[in-house]
Amino acid sequence: MVIASSMELIESTSLVMARAVQNLHKLIETKCNRNNPIETMVLMMSFTTGIILQLRTKLETFEVGFGSNFL
Length: 71
Hints:
The structure is a single chain. The chain is 76% helix and 0% strand. The chain has three helices and no strands. The chain starts with 6 loop residues before the first helix and ends with a helix.
């Protein structure tokens, strides 16, 4: 199986991911309790897990089982 992507799609995906990371940084800076690093770690782990699960779902659109193989 060959997955072909356009540069426009790759660039737009990169832009979305960059914005998400920037927004996570802003959220951590403004909302997290600096005296509780566990809270920050949980927030970052939740964000990362969400990205991975969404990526798995998107990969399933290419081929059934592809997303599970990714994980």
